[in-house]
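Notes from hallway chat w/ T.B., transcribed later so I don't forget. T.B. wanted the structure written out for a chain they're using in a teaching module, and asked if we could keep both sequence and structure tokens in one place. Agreed to drop them here.
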Amino acid sequence: MKRYLKNFSLAIPFLFVGIAALVACDFTQESSNIHQALSNLMNDLHLGLIPLVLLGCTRAIYVANQETKSIFTVRSMDWSDPNIPTSLWASPRGSDRTAAGESDEGYPHTWKSQYKSVVVCNYNKSATDGINEKGLVANLLFLLQADYTHHKESQEKPRLPITALAQYVLDNYATVKEAVDDLKQDPFFIVTSDLAVAMLDKNSERFNVYLKKIVLHLSISDSKGDSAVFQYVKDEPTRKSKLIIYYLPDKEKVKGQETLNVLTNGLLDKQLDLLKQFQNKNKNFNWGDENEVFSWDDLKKYNSRNEEVKEMNPPMNGADIRFVRASFYSNMLDKIDNDTKNKRPFIDETQRVPGKSESYKTWVEDWSKHEGLARAFSLIRNMSTPLNVQAIDDNPFLASTVWRTVVDHGNKRYFFELNRALYPVYVDLEELFADLETVKKLDLYVPPAKEGDTRIDLLEDQLNKGEKIGKVNHLFEDVKDNKWFYFDYQKP
């Protein structure tokens, strides 16, 4: 059986809708160590320099200790819109959902939630990230090659907006395997809609409004560390959308050879091929060639004429670059177990004799029970892009990291960190779900709906009011009429 499950064949050219090409890179020539490989990748990626607002996100899983269920799912949300509305919503069991809106084409998918959940809602329409009471996590990330073309005249399947896919999964499944087994039956058509974006015209120095299609793919993970990825892409023979599922059953998993723990914004087939360059014959990861001198700082290489050329350049946050970097760091992060080598070392200098190293006493202690959380946060922060960084020629992959989430599966906590705030906030899931009977929400950043309106700003709340810091369970408020947000555009 193959190392991951593929339900449909993948035949997608790397075409930027006739506008710009993303050329696959040759990873075989100079991959003697991780730094050179990343450098080559950046040089070989010819990014389409088009003024798109992209969701350049990264998701990764860090298994700190499988035995104690110290498992973390982390993700970043990269977006060029500095005013993206963001709220946390909590849903009880039995909530009625209708995937209604502009693009339902008359056949909206409807369902009733089987599990309680907490999600991040953006633009008041998309469940972009979240977790349910069973510990299943869903993350929606940008995918330029996503395709949702189908036979519009067909009435055999209901329609589900892509903005509702994560919520549908959280509402209906307890584990990754359950979701894979059901969704591979392709029970609905995915549809999408437009998002209005204001962008500065550098020539006129005015902001113009553009409509962009919402194109995303889905990653899910659970409390066992299981993972799957769902990509809707165009099937070339039929020119219609096909679902591809990447999933590795438990019986085929080998410790240290995980390949589905990371997702960014590219076709996973290609990115998994990149990882093969760092695996030996036994499929174990070998990030640096032991026969080569390892260097993080070799920024130059030579062309065929022996001329120096730049090997690295600043905006190295393309989808494949982040995929390899996140795979490297999540794979290389130490486990937290009972081995002495993974404990915390200390030095006793009270009896030292100057000049004699043997006089220094050492001992080890266990790490803090929250050490895994600290490492998980450091992992996803390392994948982030500074706020309002200046793009080069409107490079679409240089979007700022707007927020991050960290799921502590073992302690059942959901952390949210807004890049424009001072402190992360978190939800104690057991406490919130214990008596959750109505729809609740917590607004974190809400821009004014029209000129002159007030806004909600997490940075202002934390800095000036000393509010919304740490655990925020008590700050969730009941939603009027127990209504959930729409997943698509709603006409007035």
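Follow-up for T.B.: The helical segments are 34-44, 165-172, 176-183, 268-276, 319-332, 371-382, 429-434, 458-465. Might be a good example for the class.
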